[in-house]
Write a structure and sequence with these properties.
Elements lengths: L9 E4 L3 H12 L5 E4 L15 E2 L6 H21 L10 E5 L2 H17 L4 E3 L1 H7 L10 E5 L3 E2 L2 H14 L3 E3 L4 E7 L2 E7 L2 E4 L3 E3 L5 H6 L8 E10 L11 E4 L4 E6 L2 E6 L25 H14 L8 E11 L6 E4 L5 E5 L5 H18 L21 H13 L23 H6 L2 E6 L2 E7 L22 H12 L1 E5 L4 E6 L3 H8 L11 E7 L5 E11 L2 E6 L4 H11 L7 E4 L4 E7 L3 H6 L16 E6 L2 E6 L8 E7 L3 H12 L4 E4 L1 H11 L33 H10 L3 E8 L11 E3 L6 E11 L4 E9 L8 E6 L2 E8 L14
Parallel strand pairs: 1-2, 1-12, 2-8, 4-14, 12-19, 22-32
Antiparallel strand pairs: 3-7, 4-6, 5-6, 9-10, 10-11, 13-16, 13-17, 14-15, 15-16, 18-19, 20-21, 22-28, 23-26, 23-27, 24-25, 25-26, 28-31, 29-30, 30-31, 33-36, 33-38, 34-35, 34-37, 35-36, 37-38
Length: 812
């Protein structure tokens, strides 16, 4: 056994397919000093017992690109390394055994076309011809992806390791990591049972052990080992080596050919977590005891679709634990501990995504950002609510048990609700609030008391009608006509201070933060490519003290991004003060009349201009008021200490009674902002797009020296834009886009883009969609088509914003 090195540029903990792929791609980018540590032997954790299915289509374009890249890598890996990976491009068939599932397939095919994946609808008979052992009883239709396939997990891992070793990486098996030492909050050493390695970068690629390794640096990672069941049969007559993989989500089951037999498994309704008190140290190449009682419903469903399984001889029922997360997606990226990276909990998709995982992680570490935005997989998407194991496990079980369910838009979590409550919670509940949840916060979606008043309003059709209420339109219109009161306590709030605070914010923000105290600045933070990493407001409280407001879901991401870029000399401190302040928004043409009744402060346009802040008193409540808006109307956000929040609500609510004030929720905010063209990070704006492409050039100050992303923006400005975010309106008002739908040229022959967001504009009476269009299609008035559940709907490029184009209402 080779001696451990005393130091390394990067140490990867975990010798499964994820760790192997990261080592492969790091060395491909020129990093030779890479060390992989494996507690036992390569693949001995959960990689070896993977079912081996490789599908490409995911719910996000960049996740799909990761899978597509993986299959492309698998095609050429044998020729490159000489190691057979067992890759077979047999294609994949997904069945629809219900009308609702058929609608989902139509949407998936549209998404596939958007993302460049060759997926097509086929008949039940065509599906049966590909997989003759299946019955088509109850099958409504199917979709076929020709370049899906299957792979040998051990062969793939060995091939990746071989490629990494040939470029200088070291692999050390039978090496147990027992600790990670930090120095000034940064990774410094990895301690093993065979010695200590000095390093500045550690990658936690330990799969189902991810949470245990996270604890070594004080992190709580939401990883739960879940026992996944599938059987392998002896050869069955009629089974061919070229059978495609087969999935029937309505029956919760999948199938693939295996040495002339069939492998079949699925996602049961009563899943079982494993190792919650710690995974045994000697757990290598091990399975859990067969659980036939838990597998029985899946077996019945599998026989229903493939009757030959009833008489097939079963070699083994495999019950193998794999790392899962509360939302069923990977954990990737940097953490709050500098130098500690995560790439684990692949939720039974590690083989399908291993190539892309390695590429993304290597680019992220070497270049500071990956080629593709992977927010959907970013470990920082999980907020502080994911600290309790009970909470994490409950949410993971909920996700696993609904893995194959149809997930309609605006679906809400049901487990462990009521964790984080605004001080107004009971008032909202008394008003008939329909609550949603984000990062543990109970948040108002809409208020049922308004449903009767909105009986004859606009009503969407199809999937857009799920998790929808007439009250949304009523709240929207009343806010435009009178005023709406919004609880936004869940917004994340940071304080940045210290003698280096201004210089720091000037470097990380694209806009000019050096404005007089009391100013509010809307800005983005960019990566070196010019892509938008954060989108928030910065309020200058004092010379070197600033107040940042960002979205509910983005707190951990934005806080981490800021801290990773802050100076290390102690000149700047950043505190998360989210839970210290309640936030209420009051907006609408009558907002000033309402506020004037409960304050003696000057709130005239001259006394309290747009995009400024003021400390004032509302009733008996001291607040920091910000003259901003996210709905396109006159108004303010009020921040007060949490204990004052209830009285602040009561004060404003009582003052608004005679002015037609309504309580309004986040679903109304979304429709209001779409009309006004306000952007939402992770929707219309992401690290894939620059402010210039997103129509946010007004928030960029190129004259300001040396901010991150400036050079990329200068180059883009000189070269000219190739694409631009555009507002479209659809010809059919009841058709509401959900995102990812293909956008076609007017003649329908060419797919030119896809929808990034959409909704209905109740004030302008339009079905709205946003899409990044090639510049030659971005001219106002251009006619286009949008594919919505297999139907083509006419669309036209609109001049934006659709509402209050001159901004007269917000500055009144």
């Amino acid at each position: 056994m080779a001696d451990l090195p005393s130091q390394a540029q990067v140490v990867i903990i975990g010798g499964g397919v994820g760790g192997a792929s990261i080592a492969y791609h790091l060395t491909q980018l020129g990093w030779k000093d890479v060390v992989v540590l494996e507690r036992h032997e390569l693949t001995s954790g959960s990689t070896w017992h993977s079912a081996g299915l490789v599908g490409q289509l995911r719910s996000d374009v960049n996740l799909t690109r990761m899978m597509y890249y993986s299959t492309d890598l698998y095609r050429r890996l044998k020729d490159e390394t000489g190691q057979d990976t067992g890759w077979r491009e047999v294609g994949g068939v997904r069945l629809a055994s219900s009308p609702e599932r058929m609608q989902e397939l139509k949407r998936l095919v549209g998404m596939a076309r958007s993302f460049g994946i060759p997926m097509e609808l086929i008949s039940p008979q065509e599906a049966q011809k590909m997989f003759p052992l299946m019955t088509i009883d109850g099958v409504v239709g199917a979709a076929y992806t020709p370049n899906d396939g299957v792979i040998d997990p051990t062969g793939l891992t060995v091939a990746l390791v071989k490629g990494a070793k040939e470029r200088g990486a070291q692999i050390h098996e039978e090496t147990n990591v027992i600790g990670i030492n930090l120095k000034k909050g940064q990774v410094d050493e990895v301690v093993t049972d065979r010695g200590t390695i000095k390093t500045e970068i550690v990658i936690n690629a330990s799969g189902q052990w991810g949470a245990e390794v996270g604890k070594m640096v004080g992190l709580s990672l939401p990883v739960v080992p879940m026992a996944h069941l599938y059987i392998v049969t002896k050869p069955i007559e009629g089974v061919r080596h070229d059978f495609p993989t087969l999935r029937d989500p309505d029956l919760l089951v999948y199938w693939r050919e295996e040495v002339g037999g069939i492998t079949t498994g699925g996602y049961e309704r009563d899943p079982a977590p494993f190792g919650l008190d710690g995974i045994p140290r000697d757990f290598k190449y091990k399975l859990l005891n067969p659980d036939w009682d838990r597998f029985a419903p899946l077996m019945e469903n599998s026989i229903h679709r493939v009757p030959a399984l009833e008489s097939a001889e079963i070699i083994q029922l495999l019950n193998g634990p794999e790392g899962f997360t509360p939302d069923g997606e990977f954990l990737l990226g940097p953490t709050a501990v500098k130098g500690f990276w995560v790439a684990c909990a692949f939720c039974a998709h590690g083989l399908a995504g291993a190539g892309g995982i390695g590429k993304v992680m290597a680019e992220w570490i070497v270049d500071g950002h990956p080629e593709w935005d992977v927010w959907a997989l970013d470990v920082r998407r999980f907020g502080t609510n994911y600290k309790s194991q009970d909470y994490i496990v409950a949410r993971t079980i909920e996700t696993y048990s609904k893995y194959y369910d149809i997930h309609f838009p605006h679906e809400e979590r049901l487990s462990r609700r009521g964790l984080r409550l605004s001080p107004t919670y009971q008032r909202l509940k008394d008003l008939g609030c329909h609550f949603g949840e984000k990062t543990g916060w109970e948040r108002p979606n809409w208020f049922k008391i308004y449903e009767e008043k909105a009986k004859h309003g606009h009503e969407p059709k199809g999937w857009a009608h799920y998790n929808w209420s007439r009250a949304i339109g009523y709240e929207h219109l009343q806010t435009r006509q009178n005023a709406g009161l919004f609880d936004e306590t869940s917004f994340n709030k940071f304080e940045v201070r210290g003698h280096g605070a201004l210089a720091f914010l000037q470097r990380v923000c694209a806009n000019d933060i050096d404005q007089p105290s009391g100013s509010v600045v809307y800005t983005q933070c960019l990566n070196p490519r010019g892509g938008i990493e954060c989108d928030f407001t910065v309020t200058r409280l004092d010379e070197q003290r600033f107040f940042i407001i960002t979205g509910t879901s983005f707190g951990q991401h934005d806080l981490s991004w800021l801290r990773l870029n802050m100076p290390e000399d102690g000149s700047v401190s950043i505190d998360d003060v989210t839970s210290a302040y309640c936030c209420l928004g009051l907006w609408g043409p009558k907002a000033r009349n309402i506020l004037q009744q409960v304050t003696k402060d000057d709130i005239s346009n001259q006394g309290f201009p747009y995009m400024t802040s003021k400390r004032m008193t509302v009733g008996n409540v001291p607040v920091l008021a910000l003259r901003v808006t996210y709905v396109g109307e006159l108004g303010w956000e009020f921040y007060c200490p949490m204990e004052y929040g209830l009285q602040l609500w009561d004060t404003l609510w009582e003052a608004g009674r005679t002015h037609g004030l309504v309580a309004a929720g986040y679903r109304a905010i979304d429709t209001l902002r779409l009309e006004k063209g306000y952007r939402y990070w992770s929707g219309e704006i992401t690290p894939d797009y620059t402010p210039f492409e997103a129509g946010l050039g007004f928030a960029v100050r190129l004259a300001k020296q040396d901010f991150i992303g400036r050079e990329a923006l200068l180059k883009q400005k000189e070269a000219g834009l190739k694409q631009k975010l555009c507002c479209l309106s659809l010809a059919d008002l009841r058709t509401i886009v959900l995102g990812k739908e293909p956008v076609r040229s007017a003649d329908g022959k060419e797919i030119i883009s896809w929808v990034v967001s959409g909704g209905y504009g109740y004030s302008v009476g339009k079905s709205i969609a946003y899409a990044y269009l090639p510049i030659e299609y971005a001219k106002v008035g251009t006619q286009l088509q949008v594919d919505v559940f297999g139907e083509r709907v006419g669309a036209v490029v609109e001049k934006e914003p659709l509402w209050d184009a001159k901004g007269e209402r917000i500055k009144a």
